[in-house]
Target: Alpha-1,4 glucan phosphorylase
Amino acid sequence: MIYINKNSLKKDYKRKFLEINGKELEDGTKEQQYEALGSLIRDYVAKEWLNTNNKYKETGEKQVYYFSMEFLLGRLLGSSLMNLGIRDICREALLELNIDLDELENLEQDQGLGNGGLGRLAACFLDSMASLNIPGHGCGIRYKYGFFEQKIIDGKQVELSDNWLRSGNVWEIQKRDKSEIVKFGGDVKMETIDGKLTFTQVNYESILAIPYDTPITGYENEVVNTLRLWSAEPVSNEFDFSSFSRGEFLKAIEYKNSVESISLVLYPEDSFYEGKILRLKQQYFFVSAGLQSIVRHYKKYNSNIYELDEKISIHINDTHPTLAIPELMRILLDEEKLSWEEAWRITQNTISYTNHTILAEALEKWPINMFKKILPRIYMIIHEINERHCKDLWNKYIGQWDKISRMAIIADGFVRMANLAIVGSHSVNGVAKLHTEILKKKEMSDFYYLYPNKFNNKTNGITHRRWLLKSNPDLANLLKETIGEGFIKHPMDLLNFEKYLSDNNVLGKLRNIKLNNKVKLSKEIYGSYGIKVDPNSIFDVQVKRIHAYKRQTLNCLRIMDLYNKLIENPNMDINPRTFIFAGKAAPGYILAKNTIELITSIANKINNDPIVKDKIKVIMMENYRVSLAEKIIPATDLSEQISTTTKEASGTSNMKFMMNGALTIATLDGANIEIKDEVKEENIVIFGLTANEVLDYHNNGGYSSWDIYNSDNRIKRIIDNLVDGTYSYDREKFRAIYDSLLKYNDEFFVLKDFDSYIRAQEIVNELYGNKLNWQRICGVNIAHSGIFSSDRTIKEYATGIWGSDVLYKNL
Ligand code: 26Q
Model:
């Protein structure tokens, strides 16, 4: 909370503008006006930031560090202003200067240092930790290029680099004096000093890690935590031009580039693992820099290294930062000279791990030879961890070699990161109830029976500050008018909204708010793609990464089916629908890219067909990212959460949609199950195979997509449409999708779930016909969304994993 009035803000802003640009505000470009406002806000934050850090030093309270390869923050201007409690007066002040705040906010480049769910979850968690007065900070990589920018050209995805730092970043502060050295390669020298075996890395390559800190403001509570992102540089950046022959100079430049490549670009794959050397270097780079700086800071204010685990929690976001385990061991053993037993106790107590996927193809494992060469000392430590772990297993599971080899950390020529993460941490959690059950009973069952107490569930959440207050201000205002402002600090209070759902006046307002949001999105769509959509049609939305398991194909097939039906019977009575898609495909994921082409081809056909044009439209919006999600989600009537059951660990957009008053059509997968339990069956539309049915097919076989194709005419027709020229002159264009469904027996049960999906969509159509009831359902969804605030999730992490004292101020 910043105490400032409109006039001083105006004065400060003009002064700031002049200081940066050397000219008057009126003479500046919009970009300059944005930059000056951002810098001013960061100045305002600076004092609270310092105070927060000083307070943490004084109280010596436990600090949480969230280690993640990805932080998908999106834009910061609007949310910072909101958290500081000055967005309204800032809007007024700027208006008096003839500047539109929304316009400036829209100029900000998204900070897109993440792929999707996992990266956005990290961002929501930072927001919740700061807002709940929890001393929790982020640690990651300052990629020069974030997640690629997607263009759709001739119906195909084209990737452009995301040069997000091009015009600078007003939010970050470079802290060169807090740099760390990270060591790669070389050999390990073993010698006995004073009777003790010691290990020293020699002939290594040093890389300089420079931290850039971004303030993370809490909501109106004067807390400012830190997101620290590391950038790689050569240790010495100085070239002595005169002493370099031309060849040496070029070599020096090449060297500089190879070092900087470590923090150059975010890998755009989110569910497929490839053992790339550079990715391993990225992982060690930020983990080592982060841990060194944490331990250095700790030692400055604490004399007893043995109490490190009482003062610090390190949480690893999936296995990507698992090297934190051997790196902390290295620091404690080689630098602090602790015994193995003490170092291991501290490491295990300090580290906790979240799993975000059960897709086998996403499990990280590194070839031993590559690993040893890049991280020789770290490999030795993992080897020792594995030896001790396997010895325990031998004693416990006598003769059960299969089980022991499944549980080993090093086996078959690979280092298995998930096994290391489980063994080296005190807590392993899944991200929704079903997901955690699958981890315990199936994927990680060997470990669950060995360490039952390590495993726990923490159902994901989203910050209602960004995803309701900021992205849907009209809805937030209606809630304030009805139930009061309490829900902002206590999102469970949203339940009080249920009382108002018998009031037709409130339902009418809900309807108008949604319609308004739809009108805004329609304008955006018209502006970007020249396509007119009807704001009174059902906005039926699937926005997320493009992946076979998320089944955008199922969505496409039912649109194709509906189109066939409308062509046959143009007078069919349906509520008009606008099908909206958005999402990026990993650049190397051919089938996903093919799916985008299918969507755009369907759009092309349908949007240009006069027979159906008033009934259905299909839109593929380009370059899905946080700031676009903030526009689409509040304008959505129907949220498509149609993954193959068991495959989506949780999903988080499902929560954002319900919070914004959309109806969900869903399989019983991930957090959809918990959403259903909250809103009750009559306020969500469920279809498809259950988890047990899917697991049963996996275990026992018995599914044939051919049989379905041959026995259902609708399905036969649309599958044939993929290759009969209906959607492309090039009949081979969708062959890969066709083959995945028939030749490869439809791994994700698209055809199996088709009929039940169509029937579910018919129910949606009927529900929409009764306007008041539809609004009531949307209201129930809003009222029950409080439990999916990441504030609830973070409280559970704080009390259940990091140590309840982390939260003591709020208890
Ligand atoms: C791993 C190795 C090499 C290259 C890339 C990766 C990689 C990168 C990102 C693997 C996975 C990811 C991201 C995964 C992800 O976003 N998972 C999602 O996490 C959400 C938050 O928990 C869940 O809601 C989603 O269900 C889950 O898919």
